[in-house]
């Protein structure tokens, strides 16, 4: 599929929260009725999913990439109550409503994987399959606190440091640096009050569906685990694959395999999404 061209369109929609009306931005790749929604990792823009989105669209899927609230080019309110995994999952459902997609395969890395699980928990009829890379569950809690706790404290009590990093990195033209260097620069484009609110909201909200809820998710799922990744330990991916009734577990060769050598995992994702759309949709039994 190398060299296959697919259409790309940028769109926006609005969500209502207790604090007001917020704008979210997304990119649409390809066409058709076999929808896929790709989410970014924490603090990263939707552009990180551009390579995979193009691959899936070239394979005949209709792909959306979304900047969640507080990410990328979407609005960034400075209110901790605006941010939670459940709120992000509701934004995915709102995106599906906006484009008129009854169902989609939903996925992403890290935070994106947790949100995809939450979509399957709160709106099971909207999820056709799951692409879950390096979820953060029981075994990754301590490392997550050690990683994002200092960011929260810095944004709250040393906001000039966050602003200085933004001012230093924002002028760098993204077109003159390698793709993933540009994504890293985008991740540095943070506003202190907004990033503090986002991390605060994630710390004190629900991180993922419970193990009982996860066992009730009966759609095809690809679970990709990272080796030697303390914040997103392989043990969490292995545990999740054992809980989901229709999961395929793949061990990445390195934590950066899907970024630097994506061919093998791209193929696995395309196979899963295609299988999810060609398989009959299972009906949920009463009481399940």
From TrEMBL:
Signal peptide span per the entry? Answer: none
Would the keyword Nuclease be found if you checked this record's keyword annotation?
no
Matches recorded under InterPro entries: AB_hydrolase (IPR050471), AB_hydrolase_1 (IPR000073), AB_hydrolase_fold (IPR029058)
Gene Ontology terms for molecular function: hydrolase activity
Keyword Hydrolase attributed: yes
Question: Where is the AB hydrolase-1 domain positioned along the sequence?
Answer: 35-138
Superkingdom to which the source organism belongs: Bacteria
Keywords linked to the UniProt accession:
Hydrolase
What name does this protein carry? Alpha/beta hydrolase
Species of origin: Nocardioides mangrovi
